[in-house]
Amino acid sequence: MLLAAAVLSCFAGGLSAAESKSKNGRTHLGPKDIFATTNIWAVHLRFTREQWEAMTPKEGAQSGRSDGKVSRLQGQEGGRNGAAASFFGISYNYVHADLEFGTNHFKDVGVRYKGNGTFLSSREDLKRSFKIDLNQFEKGQKLAGMSQFNLHNSVRDPSGMNETIAYGLFREGKVPAPRTAYAKVFVTVPGQHDRRYFGLYTLVEDVGSAFTKEQLGGSGGALMKPVTPNLFADLGDDWKQYNQTYDPKGTVSEAQKRRVIEFCKFSSKASDGEFATKLGDYIDIDNLARYLAITTWLSDLDGILGPGQNFYVYLHPKTQKFLFIPWDQDQTFGQFPRGTDEQREKLSIQKPWTGANSLLAKVYKSESFKKAYLAALRDFNGTIFQPQRIGRQVDELATLLRAPIQEESAARLAGFNKAVAGEKVTINMGPGFPPGTQVKPIKAFVPARAKSVNEQLAGKS
Q1: Burial of 59 by CB count in 10 Å (0-12 exposed, 13-18 middle, 19+ buried)?
Q2: In the Cβ-directed half-sphere of 124, how many Cα atoms lie within 13 Å?
Q3: Which residues lie across from 439 on neighbouring strands?
Q4: Range of the domain at 17
């Protein structure tokens, strides 16, 4: 609480607590300073009217592929994946802007909108998510060693805490995950907005080369963001059939392409026994067990357990094994409206995925995986997932976030206060979902989930 008060005191002067301790933010700050959970940064984006208008996404060809080998959430080859791209043909383009981040000033950075569901939920509003690329137009610009970062609008998360707490739980569970902070975002467009306050955003670390080098101890690996309910399924011998599905973030070598295809063929054709025996040759089992234990506990049904999106896979350059990295946690804690509240609270730990998932079906039959997975669940359920502990995190963050959220609007504050108290809140899920969708927030979900997992681990449910 004292730290929160200190942060708010520093913010009143236009600085975060981390920056106030540094003589020169651009020289001395590191990512750990930027992404202190209790930091609230002042971020100001300046656009010309032409650039602001040019950032408006255009709708193009739709995809919605459903041939059984790929996901309906895949976009056109070479384009973006996700609901916005697949069903509406929406693509984003970078435009030129100037950036003030705390006391740091950057000229000619790249800014674009980002997100799929969150964009569709906010496309009629000003508060949309942004991706910032300091090097898009002016090479060599960095903030605390980073060239990119993300500003998430949390429009489907009334508390504005889901990503902060969920990513923190992953990191505590020794799963590499993005770090977060917060940002009050202001926008200037001549004749339209004069340092207009768009709202409080979650500042999320970008998963890229800097992230993998620091958190995974490797550079030169293959980072991919798959979109498929049939992960590591055999799609043939030509990488062209895999490229859009695995959406590489950077250059992938021929050897890395062969490694992906090799595992896809093995995963699809091996017997259950052979698969279990050799699974550890391809996948870091400890990482996968911890990642799935936390994902399952959180009942995140908009990711690998659902349509097969919102996570990264990293082929480590030294071990040649695949590791998993979580992404897009704004509707975790059972808040993605798939099934009922009770079904999400009591989600099976033995078969947590929805629909057919041949990879997970084989993985959960592997004794080496199951031993590590159940051990992780027992550990986490008695430590990082204790309801009182998470409840305290909610209360502490609420003290920090209430004032900047109040500045957005009375309606935003009302939803925030209900979420903090554990009451259901109505949100706009956008196209494809019924109006008036309600989410059950963290404090209401966590005790019920802890009880269910305890009963399942004890064989009582």
Answers
A1: exposed
A2: 5
A3: 425
A4: 2-212
Distance CA 78, CA 191 (A): 36
Q: Looking up tokens 């196209």, which residue turns up?
A: 431
- CA dihedral (73, 78, 84, 87) in degrees, to 10, reads -60
In a domain, 445, yes or no: no
Is residue 189 located within the same domain as residue 77?
yes
E strand or H helix at 100: strand 95-101
Instruction: List beta partners, residue 199.
Output: 185
* Nearest partner of 280 among 263, 297, 295, 265, judged by Cα: 263
- Cα 322 to Cα 221: distance, rounded to the nearest angstrom: 10
Residue 405 lies in a domain: no
Q: Are residues 260 and 339 in the same domain?
A: yes
Residue 102: CB atoms within 10 A of its CB come to 25
Distance, CA of 428 to CA of 411 (rounded, Å): 13
End residue of a domain, out of 154, 181, 212 = 212
Mark whether 54 and 118 lie in a shared domain.
yes
DSSP secondary structure string, 164-211? HHHHHHHHHTT-----EEEEEEEEEETTTEEEEEEEEEEEEE--SHHH
- Domain assignment of residue 61, yes or no: yes
Could you report the average pLDDT of every consecutive run of 10 residues in the chain (461 residues)? 38 40 52 92 98 92 61 87 90 96 96 93 93 96 94 96 98 98 98 98 95 87 96 97 96 97 97 96 98 98 96 97 97 94 97 96 97 98 97 98 98 97 94 89 97 97 92
CA 274 – CA 266 distance, rounded (Å): 9
* Cβ proximity of 259 and 320 under 8 Å: yes
Contacts (Cβ under 8 Å, ≥6 apart) of 12: none
Do 222 and 321 contact (CB within 8 A), yes or no? no
Displacement of CA 300 from its chain's centroid (Å)? 11
Flag whether 73 is in a domain: yes
Q: How many domains does the chain have?
A: 2
Residue 36, burial from CB neighbour count under 10 angstroms (0-12, 13-18, 19+): middle
How many of the other CB atoms lie within 10 Å of CB of 429? 20
| Phi, psi angle pair for 194, to nearest 5° | -115, 95
| Cβ-based neighbours of 218, under 8 Å, separated by 6 or more | 212, 314, 316, 317, 318
